[in-house]
């Protein structure tokens, strides 16, 4: 019995040593580099997030504005890149005339003077709306952007033309597979090297349709992300990268990151070797995944010399904090 116990102990010791050596970042040869910054919706007006749900009109909860940009516009994206973003995220909806509008909300009622579901309008109708109409920071007493947002809702074609050499993350706002098919037609018309600068995420069904049509695109849905993270936590100690983690976006909430084998450098190397991009997020608490690393305090929770991606709603704050620290959290 003692011999069996000693043998079992030796095996466990060897296994523990293997797991430790195979997943430490001490022996990686990953070169140092500044994090890749992803600006969610470009530069946007901030709002009080307390109690916000999927149907909350965030424009009516705007905090006192500190800049003049409205999210998902050419100007806000240009300002985001100028502030230090490497990638801009943009939300899209199909239009009745076969285009894609760049706009966050499912309906136009919150931010504009219009009514109805966004996708039930033509692009011309959407461009005629004032996307600054509904913003207020004082409960409706004043509307500082009213009259200033007419014609500012761009089409996806407008965005691609305005930023031909920039990286973009496109967000499909529905779970309609037809939307994935329509988007695949638009993206298929682009040169292959341009598609490599684009990524797409959204509902499970449109992402599946898009990936079937364009398997070379980096895509992600909620279920694909969950499958990637759970399977990697299960088998990543071996160094094996699950198929669900290949050619995708891997969004990593900062409170889940320590559970990932080899975090940070070994994990980043494995994901990049599988053709995937990693972006650190704010803490996950059962809600959606749009919480960014938006404060210096959250940024400080990243490992020293972290060189993966960072998802943020506050590109100016995060970029300036990184600049002050010579590019490192």
Automatic annotation (TrEMBL):
Pfam families: GDPD (PF03009)
GO molecular function: phosphoric diester hydrolase activity
Transmembrane segments: none
Keywords: Signal
GO biological-process terms attached to the record: lipid metabolic process
Keyword Repeat: no
InterPro entries given in the database record: GP_PDE_dom, PLC-like_Pdiesterase_TIM-brl
N-terminal signal peptide: 1-23
Domain GP-PDE span(s) in chain numbering: 51-322
PANTHER family according to UniProt: GLYCEROPHOSPHORYL DIESTER PHOSPHODIESTERASE, GP-PDE DOMAIN-CONTAINING PROTEIN
Name listed for the protein in its UniProt record: Glycerophosphodiester phosphodiesterase
Phylogenetic placement of the source organism: Bacteria, Pseudomonadati, Pseudomonadota, Alphaproteobacteria, Hyphomicrobiales
């Amino acid at each position: 019995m003692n011999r069996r116990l000693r043998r079992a102990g030796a095996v466990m010791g060897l296994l523990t040593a293997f797991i430790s050596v195979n997943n430490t970042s001490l022996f990686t040869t990953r070169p140092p580099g500044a994090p890749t910054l992803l600006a969610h919706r470009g530069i946007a007006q901030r709002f009080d997030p307390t109690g916000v749900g999927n149907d909350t009109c965030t424009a009516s909860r705007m905090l006192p504005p500190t800049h003049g940009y409205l999210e998902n516009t050419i100007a806000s994206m240009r300002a985001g890149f100028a502030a230090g973003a490497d990638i801009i995220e943009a939300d899209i909806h199909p239009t009745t005339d076969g285009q894609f509008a760049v706009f966050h909300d499912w309906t136009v009622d919150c931010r504009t003077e219009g009514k109805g579901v966004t996708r039930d309008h033509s692009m011309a109708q959407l461009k005629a709306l004032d996307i600054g109409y509904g913003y207020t920071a004082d409960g409706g007493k004043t509307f500082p952007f009213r009259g200033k947002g007419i014609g500012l809702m761009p089409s996806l074609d407008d965005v691609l033309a305005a930023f031909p050499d920039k990286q973009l993350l496109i967000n499909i706002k529905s779970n309609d597979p037809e939307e994935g098919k329509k988007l695949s037609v638009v993206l298929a018309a682009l040169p292959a090297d341009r598609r490599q600068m684009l990524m797409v995420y959204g509902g499970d069904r449109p992402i599946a349709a898009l990936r079937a049509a364009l398997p070379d695109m980096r895509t992600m849905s909620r279920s694909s992300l969950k499958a990637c993270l759970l399977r990697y936590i299960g088998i990543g100690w071996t160094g094996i990268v699950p198929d669900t983690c290949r050619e995708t976006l891997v969004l990593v909430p900062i409170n889940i990151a320590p559970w990932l084998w080899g975090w940070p450098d070994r994990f980043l190397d494995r994901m990049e070797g599988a053709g995937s991009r990693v972006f650190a997020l704010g803490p996950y608490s059962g809600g959606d995944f749009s919480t960014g690393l938006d404060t210096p305090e959250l940024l400080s929770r990243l490992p020293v010399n972290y060189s993966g991606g960072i998802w943020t709603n506050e590109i100016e704050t995060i970029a300036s904090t990184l600049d002050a620290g010579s590019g490192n959290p």
